[in-house]
Structures are given as C-alpha cells and as structure tokens.
Design goal:
binds zinc ion, 399 residues, eight-stranded mixed sheet, alpha/beta
C-alpha cells in the first residue's frame, strides 16, 4: 500500500513521464538542453557524460543523448554539470546584490545564517524576498543581530520573547535559530544556547551554533544539541575545537553525530578554519555533512572567493568530486525543508543546475590565518540555470 505522499509522488512522476513522452512524440522543443557535460549527481549516484533536458522549469530527462531541440542550448562539453549548489551558511541576504552574486557562482539556494536578530529581521527578510533563488533565514538569538561588541555579550540580548514574536510573524521564512558562541560574541555561551533552544525546540526548528574559541568547553555546548541541529565552523582551531591534541575527535562530538546533529564547514574569514585543524579532523575520518561558505561581500576577494573555490579546497583531503558535490547538494537538501526537492537532477525536480569548470594548475588556497596550501585543481563557476532558465554565465563562456 502506498501512503498518501508516496501515492502523490508516484502520480506526479507518472504524469511527468507522460508529458515527456508526449513532448517527444510531438517533437516539441525543450526549453533548454545542457549537452555533453560530465554530470555529477550524488543523489542519483551518477557520474557520466549526459545531456539534460528541461521543460516547464523542471528536469525532463537525463540521458546519454537527447534528440530534439531546445530554445536554449548550453554546450557543457569538457565541463562539469551538477545540481545547483545549496549554501546553508551564507550572509547573502545582508546586502542588496548578495543573492544575485551568489547565483553567478552556481548557488541556487541559500540560508542566511543569523545576519539579524528580532529587532531588525524585517530588513533581512525584505532582501531575502528579492532573491531570485529560494532562501530562508536563521534568526540570530541576539535580538540586535551581529554586533561588533558581541551579539549576546549582554545576555539580556538573548531575548526569548522577542525571538518567539519574530518567528510568529515570519514563520515560513525563518527556518531556525543561530547562536554565535565564540568568546568575543557570547560571554555566557551555555545560557545563550539554552535560550536559543527554548525558542527553537517547541517549534521543532533547528539551532545552528557557531563553535570555536568558546568560553565553555565544547562538550558542554554540544550536549545541548538535538537531532537536526547544526554545528558550523567545525574546523575552528583550539581552544575548543572538535579534535583533541592527539588528533582524536571528542567523544561528545561523535555522540552528537550519532544522534543526528549535523557538522558544517562555514568557511568564513576569521577564526573558523585553519589548515592544520582541517588536516587533523579529516585524517580522523570526520568529514563534514555540508560544505558552506559563510558568504559575505568581503569574502569575494579574500579566502572564500566563491562556493566552487571553497569546494575545491576539500579535494585535497581525500574527498572526490562526488564527495564535495554531495556536501553542497544532497547534504543541504536533507537539512532544510526548503531544499527538500532540490540538490538533485532527478526527473521532475526543479531545474536548478550549476555548470562548473575544473581547471588543472597551481592554486593558492588560503585559510583564515593566512596559511596557504597549494592545490592542483580548482572548480570555477561557468553557468547557472535556475528554474529552467539560464540566469548567469561567466565572462568568456560562449553564448
Ligand atoms: Zn556566519
């Protein structure tokens, strides 16, 4: 017996298949075809040269060769074609151009992670509403948002009532709570996190904690996390990183992962990622669930650059192209409801596609402490398709 959801999915799938067959029979052109790229889609366990046809804003077919024509054809020969990238830790809704700039980097969905608190969340939401791609925001538990003096250094700023009111007003767009917990941001980090959970738990929303250089030992903080919560900046160096001096992942961190807490990169620019810590953690086999940028306008020219650059940094730590793509597509689709049917090129899914170029050479990968690692390959954004329309194409890509 199928349950209602399975029945609806099967029915929708059958309807799509029929529409696809009709289209072929009628020789109607597709809206768009991406031809001849190396398609890497971890959700389909696919890594092969394929054509992708798009109709009505959705993926219509993924085949070795698709006959027929399209209004727009993207020649992806020699390039990689992946599901549109999903960035679960971004601040793209902090600036007017943020969402559009990220779209050029192949980002077809993002979560603005704690740019604002209850007092001014309407500003972030107004920019989020203008984003061409799907996005959600995490509400900073500090009601005044990100402050140079520390979001919740005054613990009264971690205001449960104000946060609850903001969510009641904007439920749907607010997808969780962000608690920034490093010692210049939160004095009593344990109390701040408890307040964040007081808001999030009854509503079944996730809390994302910004870890690293905290006042409290990490095990105490991680102990407060529930399944579905997210630890970002997982490669933050000591004090209070996820790994001990001997290179062992803390038992409380392993236990958190076992009970369903997610671990995310959150690259950023200050104090969140140092190569020696990355090496230790990766060597211990504790790979991230998601790779994210902690994107800001300033990061475009320093360390982060773009999402494909951040992904490239992990190719040197034993991860394959499939592994890094999974953490920017499939991983995020499991974390946030808004991405549930995205991060895939499955037939019927929204046609969000990133075309990337993998270049060989010598590349400098910089951490948050000015340490440089040399890499031999780097992914570059090339073209982006959102809801079946080509929305971005980097300079130099032929029309
Ligand atoms: Zn951030």
């Amino acid at each position: 017996m199928l349950n209602r959801r399975e029945f609806l999915c099967a029915a929708a799938g059958a309807a799509l298949a029929t529409r696809f067959a009709d289209r072929l029979a009628a020789q109607a052109p597709f809206d768009l075809i991406v031809r001849g790229g190396r398609v890497i889609d971890p959700s389909l366990r696919l890594d092969a040269v394929r054509d992708i046809a798009v109709a009505g804003g959705r993926i219509a077919a993924v085949e070795a060769q698709i006959a027929g024509t399209a209004a727009v054809t993207i020649d992806a020969r020699g390039k990689m074609v992946v599901p549109g990238l999903l960035d679960i830790h971004s601040h793209a809704a902090r600036t007017k151009d943020g969402a559009r700039l990220c779209l050029e980097d192949g980002v077809t969905g993002f979560v603005d992670a704690g740019s604002q608190g209850a007092d001014r969340i309407h500003e972030t939401l107004a920019l989020a509403a203008l984003a061409p791609q799907p996005c959600r925001v995490l509400l900073n538990i500090g009601r005044a948002g990100i402050l140079a003096t520390g979001d919740t250094m005054d613990v009264n700023l971690a205001d449960v009532g104000a946060a609850r009111d903001a969510i009641a007003k904007h439920r749907g767009m607010i997808a969780g709570i962000k608690a920034r917990l490093s010692r210049e941001v939160a004095g009593d980090d344990y109390l701040v996190l408890r307040r964040a959970q007081e808001v999030a738990s009854p509503l079944d929303l996730p809390v994302m904690i910004h870890m690293g250089q905290t006042v409290s030992p990490l095990p105490a903080l991680v102990g407060l996390l529930k399944p579905g919560d997210i630890v970002t900046h997982m490669f933050a160096p000591p004090p209070n990183s996820i790994v001990d001096d001997a290179g062992r992942i803390l038992p409380e961190v392993l236990a958190a992962r076992r009970r369903g807490v997610w671990f995310d990169v959150g690259h950023g620019r200050t104090g969140h990622l140092r190569w020696d810590t990355v090496e230790q953690v990766m060597r211990a086999g504790f790979w991230p669930d998601t790779i994210s940028t902690d994107w800001t306008a300033e990061g475009r020219t320093s360390q982060v650059i773009d999402f494909p650059n951040v992904l490239s940094k992990f190719l040197d730590f034993g991860m394959s192209l499939n592994d890094v793509v999974a953490r920017a597509t499939l991983g995020p689709s499991r974390m946030f409801e808004v991405f549930r049917d995205r991060g895939t090129l499955n037939v019927g899914a929204p046609a969000d596609i990133a075309v990337l170029e993998l270049r060989q050479g010598s590349f400098d990968f910089v951490d948050n402490y000015k340490n440089v690692r040399k890499g031999r390959q780097r992914l570059f954004p090339s073209e982006t398709v959102l809801a079946g329309k080509r929305v971005a194409r980097t300079a130099g890509t032929p029309a």
